[in-house]
Design brief:
- By secondary structure, the protein is an all-beta fold.
- It has no helices and eleven strands.
- The strands form two sheets. Strands 2, 4, 5, 6, 9, 10 and 11 form a seven-stranded mixed β-sheet that branches.
- It is globular.
- It starts with a strand and ends with a strand.
């Protein structure tokens, strides 16, 4: 059974940075794709990024491209989401999720993700 746990959320001023971590257990990162999602109050869940654990290929939504960077450390079975130039509209609960894959790619459709973390709150003050 795969488990993923997020950490690193918090309160930051607009223009600041935060780094979220997502640590997977139960399978090696090389056999997983990891996605990042967020849900702001009274809004639908948004797909924002993903990374393939085997080759590190990534995808980003337009809303975060150029500001957020996803990376992985296979030795630690951990994926990171570096968030720079944060805006108040980035305020949300951020989730990481995983699915098993042998394809060297990832997708940002939440429906394909089987294993979800509990979420971590990110609040950006203006």
């Amino acid at each position: 059974q795969v488990q993923v746990v997020e950490s690193g959320g918090g309160l930051v001023q607009a223009g600041g940075s935060l780094r979220l971590s997502c640590t997977a257990s139960g399978r090696t990162l090389e056999t997983l794709a990891i996605g990042w999602f967020r849900r702001a109050p009274e809004k639908e869940r948004e797909d924002i990024s993903c990374i393939d654990g085997a080759d590190g290929s990534t995808m980003y939504s337009d809303s975060v491209k150029g500001r957020f960077t996803v990376s992985r450390d296979t030795a630690k079975n951990t994926v990171y989401l570096q968030m720079n130039s944060l805006k108040p509209e980035d305020t949300a609960v951020y989730y990481c999720a995983a699915y098993y894959t042998i394809q060297k790619m990832c997708v940002m459709f939440s429906s394909v993700y089987d294993y979800w973390g509990q979420g971590t709150q990110v609040t950006v003050s203006s």
